[in-house]
Write a structure and sequence with these properties.
The protein has a domain of 91 residues. 17% of the residues lie in helices and 28% in strands. The longest helix has 11 residues. By secondary structure, the chain is an alpha+beta fold.
Amino acid sequence: MKSWKSYKIGLIVMINLLYETENILEAHDLTWDDVDFISCDEFSISVENFREIAATADYDAGYGAPEVAQDLAIVFNNGGWLDRREYDGSEWWEYHIVPSKPRQERKIHALVVGQKVNGEYPGWLDLERMNA
């Protein structure tokens, strides 16, 4: 993997968005040639335009307010995509793949915590355990 292009300003470590993006592409055996499109909720942008602007986009990925556009997504020819994730201001790219359909189909009884299952209100459960 490429080393992160980063530098410190006081205690803050700044990260370059292009280097971060290329690192995640490499981690998933992808290249810029694999990109179908880059977009936000309202419009798309060219790969060339993204790379040009991202090359000068340094940001603090640590805790605080997110700095990178949160609706930014990179979609690949294989159906996978990257989108921005954030927790308490710490932000990163997350890679997703299209899930395959399971062979088994079931009738379920609960989708949310408030639906009673076996006389109990399940919490912090996945769909499988809610409907066991």
